[in-house]
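Entry 14. Ran structure prediction on the chain below.
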Amino acid sequence: MKHATRTLLQRTAHFTRAALALAAAATLTGAPLAAHADPEGLLPSVHKDTTLINTVPDNGDQNPYAIVVAPVSAGSVKAGDVLVDNFNNAANMQGMGSTIVDYHPDTKQMSLFATIPRDLKECPGGVGLSTAMTMLKSGWVIVGSTPSNDGTTGTKGAGCLIVLDSSGKIAKTISSPNINDPWGNMAVVDNGDHATLFLSNAGFGVGGADGNPPVFKQATVLRLDLDIPSGQVPVVKSETVVASGFGAQADKGVFLVGPTGLALSADNKLLYVSDAIGNRVNVIEDPLTRDTSAGVGRQLTADGMLHRPLAMIMTPQGHLLVTNALNGQVVEIDPAAAKQLYARWIDTDKAQTPPGNGDLFGIALTPAGDGFYYVEDDVNTLVLAK
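Output, structure tokens:
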């Protein structure tokens, strides 16, 4: 009888371990933990990836980077349109792309929104459009330039921000000693007649990519406060470095590795920064009001499902979605619990190892918040996950 009891206990322990293993596997794949449980977060509700367009315009620009969903209808843009910029030119040389395309979900067509002169003199080093882009409620589009003259960091310039009207025409450029290779996607607080932009800068100290390039811990996050008088071009009211000391490194394959993703909490009291070199997500407190740098802030989460985190957005559930550079996954994080919840394969291209390695950059929520857009830069496509 005692032997039978021990066997039952052993079997119970075995099934318990098996159940725990299944639960852990479900978490890693982004599946719900149980069929009857309501999954928490956005990724478990996403079931299909639909390729929408090829993002290459007539001039042949490649390597789609930034994604912005238009918040308003203005000029040639309709609310809900998806703007995508290109980092590479037709010869696939990095830091030399100069176009922004506009995908229209209602017609499923793409048009050219803007072509910016490569040798724009007001922008130090010229033009190579980066992941830093936004469209404001006032209709202005602001895009970052991280330029090169030959596709390498050896000839890179400091770059700038370029302000375009809602028809894609250049209105002004913004350059400053605090702006050096605006690299990551912007976090924005937009109040119509004034706005605040957060911008990561990965160019400080970084030179050529020959040999084993050093890591320079000089990358920053810059806050730009803008005044936007009705019908007039935005004016920089003030600029403040709110974070500094992040690592950045020249890289032959991807040009630069540095802080890329920026996202604000719902109450705007916390700014989340994806630190690619540190393989982590950090938190900067009081980003709207602080007048000094918080350094690298505090660490929220690191390693685990993160594999060189890049672009980042906040979901309606208050979670973070972060694309990985070193595989084709997007990771969902609950910042309140400082917990990585799910990792979902959104790019399974086996031409790379691991699948999707180096393909993912920009990411943006759909207007309804029920899915997200992303780009696969290896095949120059815009994709909807929903």
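The chain has two domains: 1-34, 39-385. Will compare against last week's run tomorrow.
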